């Protein structure tokens, strides 16, 4: 039986994808550049960040319901990397194809829907993200939020 929910962002929190990430001058992600660099060869160059060890321990703990909540759109290469390199979480929440909501709005709505389920409604929740906007938007859904400093979102 689950006693805790731990939610992790992916890029800049569990995985360093900076070699295939670039911001526009206004601080938003350059999606064209991101999609152009979403190849099996480039994804294979992604490296794990220190917090991945805690994530793996959480996945192995039967009392922790582990979630990856990322703004990445569903893509087979990303899912393959997550399951092969990090290990599958209890729940993988990704951007539905065609959804263009801001990251913070997207994460809030997806996580709120999950936490409204009876089995999760009263469990303590913790959230790790590198984007202060996401942490601010989702703060009311969690008992604890943790900012993970990342050079990917330092200009956001």
Concise summary:
With 156 residues, the protein is α/β, with parallel strands linked by helices. The protein is built from six helices and seven strands.
Question: Would you give an account of this structure?
Answer:
The protein is of the alpha/beta class and 156 residues long. The protein has one domain (4-17, 48-147): Rossmann fold (3-Layer(aba) Sandwich). Helix content is 32%, strand content 21%. The chain contains six helices and seven strands. The chain has helices at residues 31-36, 40-43, 52-60, 76-86, 103-115, 132-138; strands spanning 4-8, 15-16, 47-48, 64-73, 91-95, 125-129, 144-147. The strands form two sheets. Strands 5-4-1-6-7 form a five-stranded parallel sheet, sandwiched between helices. Strands 2-3 form a two-stranded antiparallel sheet. Helix 5 (103-115) runs parallel beside helix 6. The chain is globular and about 40 Å long.
